[in-house]
């Protein structure tokens, strides 16, 4: 096992993130509303070429060195490793930049991960979601229940020092016992993931799950499952970082902090979002339009907005409140209505465990929300 974990303070450069969107998936999961497609693999080569062109143009306009790079989607591991690495090679990076690739568990072969690592990737993230067959079936996921073992083995063999597994709680098919089993399976691994994300399932309109009310998550059951995840992870030495993220010390995801700290980031590829000092802009959603616009020499812009100071302050407070850093007590006029959802320590307010999934009820009480 190597120890080349880039920690948050390793990079001397100011934080600057690069996100690359890969809009291809093997099939569509029942709950997914992301800008991704299961029938466009024929576009992959053109897409990679367009992303490299978009990055090259940004470089001509002074694209800063990235302190973190994140390949998300979609399923970045749908691309051949050499295609993904061609994109990575085009991105200017600070020394010791964190480079994360999201990977479907089915794609986690030792060979692929060795290729990634040799090409400069130093962090992996896998959407395992659950190890229980009924839950995976309800989510419309196709990987097997032993995926966590295969993934852990491959990551270790390939020599990655830091990595993540994603979990989802809230499926109607999931009992609290299922959540307990999944956690036992992951934490019982010889090489357990040092970072875990846990998301609460949401019924997104237009998805198979969203269109069937019988499959909508039950709020109380989801809260119980989420609460169990937090208690078990924290008892196992994972520190709570943000509503959906826990990490062992030294294994925080630097790229996440770019978003949580309102730092600047550039997004490349269809539907990718960028942020520069209060100006947010995003690319067109479909890969076809994106490729056509890049080929035509036009910026593939889908929209933009500039946040005024007031909105920026509110966003800063609400993002910070979602993290373990919290906000100063002065950020609230009163805590009376939300005392049961927060904790106050050293002059700062953080979400109490039972307030994390109810963060919106706390956020609306911020002074900056007025
Ligand atoms: S693999 Fe991820 S991005 Fe692709 S359909 Fe499933 S949830 Fe959506």
Description:
With 370 residues, this protein is of the alpha/beta class. The protein has 2 domains: 16-259, Aldolase class I (TIM Barrel, Alpha-Beta Barrel); 309-369, no CATH class. Helix content is 32%, strand content 22%. The chain contains 11 helices and 15 strands. It has helices spanning 44-60, 81-90, 110-118, 133-139, 147-158, 176-187, 219-235, 254-260, 287-295, 309-321, 359-363; strands spanning 16-22, 66-73, 93-103, 123-129, 163-169, 195-200, 239-242, 245-247, 264-268, 273-276, 279-283, 301-306, 327-328, 342-345, 348-351. Strands 7-8-6-5-4-3-2-1-9 form a 9-stranded mixed beta sheet, sandwiched between helices. A hairpin with a 2-residue loop joins strand 10 and strand 11. Helix 1 runs parallel beside helix 2, helix 1 (44-60) crosses helix 9 and helix 6 (176-187) runs parallel beside helix 7. The longest helix has 17 residues, at 44-60. The radius of gyration is 20 Å and the shape is globular. Mean pLDDT is 95; it is low at 1-9. Residues 25, 28-29, 32, 34, 36, 73-75, 104, 127 line the site of iron/sulfur cluster (SF4).
């Amino acid at each position: 096992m190597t120890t080349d974990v880039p920690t948050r303070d390793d990079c001397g450069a100011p934080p600057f993130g690069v996100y690359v969107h890969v809009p291809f998936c093997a099939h569509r999961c029942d709950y997914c509303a992301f800008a991704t497609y299961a029938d466009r693999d024929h576009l992959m080569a053109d897409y990679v070429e367009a992303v490299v062109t978009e990055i090259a143009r940004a470089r001509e306009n002074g694209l800063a060195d990235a302190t973190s790079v994140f390949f998300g989607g979609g399923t970045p591991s749908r691309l051949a490793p050499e295609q993904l690495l061609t994109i990575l090679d085009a991105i200017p990076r600070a020394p010791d930049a964190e480079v994360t690739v999201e990977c479907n568990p089915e794609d986690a072969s030792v060979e692929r991960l060795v290729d990634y690592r040799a090409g400069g990737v130093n962090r992996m993230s896998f959407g395992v979601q659950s190890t229980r067959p009924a839950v995976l079936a309800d989510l419309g996921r196709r990987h097997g229940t032993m995926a966590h073992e295969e993934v852990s083995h491959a990551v270790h063999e390939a020599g990655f020092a830091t990595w993540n597994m994603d979990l989802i709680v809230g499926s109607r098919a999931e009992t609290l016992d299922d959540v307990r089993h999944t956690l036992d399976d992951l934490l019982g691994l010889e090489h357990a993931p040092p970072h875990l994300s846990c998301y609460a399932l949401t019924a997104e309109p237009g998805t198979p799950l969203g269109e069937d009310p019988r499959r909508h998550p039950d709020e109380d059951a989801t809260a119980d499952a989420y609460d169990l995840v937090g208690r078990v992870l924290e008892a196992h030495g994972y520190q709570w970082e943000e509503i959906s993220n826990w990490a062992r010390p030294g294994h925080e995801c630097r790229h996440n902090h770019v978003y949580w700290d309102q730092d600047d980031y550039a997004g490349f590829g269809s539907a990718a979002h960028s942020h520069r000092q209060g100006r947010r802009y995003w690319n067109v959603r479909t890969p076809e339009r994106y490729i056509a616009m890049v080929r035509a020499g036009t910026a593939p812009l889908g929209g933009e907005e500039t946040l005024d100071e007031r909105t920026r302050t509110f966003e800063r407070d609400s993002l910070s409140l979602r993290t373990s850093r919290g906000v100063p007590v002065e950020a609230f006029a009163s805590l009376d209505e939300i005392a049961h959802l927060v904790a106050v320590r050293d002059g700062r307010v953080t979400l109490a465990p039972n307030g994390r999934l109810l963060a919106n009820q706390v956020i609306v009480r911020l002074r900056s929300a007025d």
